[in-house]
Write the structure tokens for this entry.
Amino acid sequence: MAFYCENKEKLETIHPINEAYTEIANPIKLYELLVDLWSKETCAFRMQKDWKKENPSLGQCSITSFLTQDIFGGEVYGIKLEDGSFHCYNVVDGIAFDLTSEQFSYPLVYELQNPQSREIHF
């Protein structure tokens, strides 16, 4: 698991809020499923030309963060990037985690600022 989380042991305490998703026990299990599902087609349109199997989480932050919210609840926040766009991540039960952080070659600063909405990203 190469994704960011301030306390990965606590991720095991986060469970689905909807019975339809009970087979996905926690965000770690979701990450394990998504690594094999991310593709050029699920990548943000503006980044599809740069997507590679070697960096599967590239361009997957919005779809992944809002799917994570559907399954586990919580909030989606964004880190403002140099190009003015926002990189999305999740906060559930006070635990910040970013299932797509490995796409970056530099560390990100996770502050509970810049709430994100589906309307902005989709």
